[in-house]
Specification:
Layout (H helix, E strand, L loop, with lengths): L2 H12 L9 H9 L8 H12 L1 H37 L9 E5 L5 E5 L6 E9 L5 E4 L12 E7 L4 E6 L8 H10 L5 E8 L2 E8 L8 E4 L3 E3 L1 E3 L3 E2 L8 E5 L5 E5 L6 H22 L6 E7 L3 E8 L5 E4 L5 E5 L4 E5 L2 E5 L3 E6 L2 E5 L8 E7 L1 H26 L2 E4 L5 E4 L7 H13 L21 E3 L5 E3 L1 H10 L1 H9 L6 H13 L5 H60 L9
Antiparallel strand pairs: 1-23, 2-22, 3-19, 3-23, 4-8, 4-18, 5-6, 5-9, 7-8, 10-17, 11-16, 12-16, 13-14, 13-17, 15-16, 19-20, 21-22, 24-25, 26-27
Helix pairs in contact: 2-12, 3-12, 4-7, 4-11, 4-12, 7-8, 8-11, 9-10
Amino acid sequence: MSSTSVINSLLSSSSANVNSAIDLSNILASASGSSTPGIDVTAAVNAALYADRATERVWQSDQATLTSQMSAVSSIETATQALQNDMESLNSLAGPFAARTVSSSNSNVVTGSAAAGTTSGVHTVVVNSLATYGSWYSDLASSATATLPTSSMTITSASGATATFALGNGNAGDNLNDLATAINANTSLGVTASVMTDSTGSRLAIVSNSLGTANDFNITSPNYTGTSWTSSEMPTGSTLGANTITLSNAAGANLSITSTSGETYAQFATQINNAVSSYNATATANGTATLNVNATAGSTSSGTNLNIASTDGSAFTINQPAFGFTQANAATDATLTVDGVPVDSASNTVTGAIPGVTLSLVGTSVGTPVTLTVAPDATQISGAINQFVTDYNSAINLVNQQFAVTSGTDSSGNPTASQGALGSDPTFANLQATLEQALNYVYTPSSGTTTVSSLRDLGITVGNDGTLSVDNGTLDTALATNPTDVQNFFEGSALNGFANNLYTALNGFTSPGNGAFQVDLQSMQSQCNDYTSQINDFEANYIAGQQAILTAEFSTAEQALQTLPEQMQQLNAELGFNNNPLGG
């Protein structure tokens, strides 16, 4: 209604009662739709454009339906692809049916693992000895940082690598810590040195980096020739390891003496002197050269040592292989027999003795065979079959949802019925039939008989809703008693069994190039894009122009309403009304 019409209406009503006051707020409310002057231009324009957008809202509704359908297709595609992946795995030469377990009658001696496809069978293993590391340790020193006496040692590996380390020559270090550092810096020896310290003192431990005879090593010290030799110092109260020295002279005398582990230097000196005395008595009786030396144990404030001196002034030679070091273990190979065949291994992990099987040696069983059984991995096979059932149910449930009828009422209260987003799409009726028909597969061997010709023989049954359930007791029994029949059902005679049948049936839906899922999705996306273009064109070519026109018209009306109070004051004055509702 224009401002003139409002005024005319007011004048018409006032002629009947000129003494009554005009309520200008009512006039403004009639003109503007509110109790206060003015028009909300934006709201008015939007209200006017709502009717113009009726067609656009239909497009948007159709686009939302397509989006919902695309989401449903994607969900079904993902579930169907998972099911097809299950079939691919169950039909693979490297799949669950190829998995093997190795069980041991004595896992404290030997365990094993088998590669996929390893021939099943029973084997006997006798472990005579385990592969060991080579290791040596030094006699005690008072501490890891105590200066060592002047000497040297040579480490020689079984492969021929050798290195000599000088000690006590006045260089910085010359202690067990620095000797360990020097040894570890020589990577060609294949050993690792470390210092072990306890309440009695410190030792140097040297261990081969790898097991087996080929990784063994030896420690020797150089020969000494002269008239007096003194050993390295040992902390007071400490004892020797099992060390051997050889005494000889230019006349041909030659005597080897081995200390007993736990001896002191004083005890070893007595042992040497007794051995020399006995040797000389025999040599004199035989007319051969005697050995004229005497051993004594000495002591200092920090420890004890051994001194060997000539008793007649003639020089002698002391050959001291590893003197000051004790061999704790010689590196050895593992020895075993597998099905009666002797096997030597540099490692306690043995491959090649049984094709496809890796043995892990844990202990020995001399004379007592251990039984290893290689068999199909029933747990892995059962898991794969149960996964197939789970994924089949996910796919069929999603498909069934598209055809489920939902009851309701329309805006008038009339009853309605609707299906899922894809209920009218023939692709999914076809998929539903394909999934259901695949369950009817029957395996018939080309020769002989089988205990597994259908899913039911595996304890897999179909419910009223089309989903599968598994009786794992029946499945486990089939796997335990007839594993080959179970495999043949899924794989057939040439990878052409149930798994291949279902996999191939689903290809028409899942193919990435021209499968039904992709064709549907591409069509729906194209329609969505068309609607987007239509909506954008409609907004740009029609709605934008209408919005400009309406905005201008409502803005003009708003301006007119803003001048109405002033016009009403003038009119009141001309009519002679004293009661001014606007306070003028």
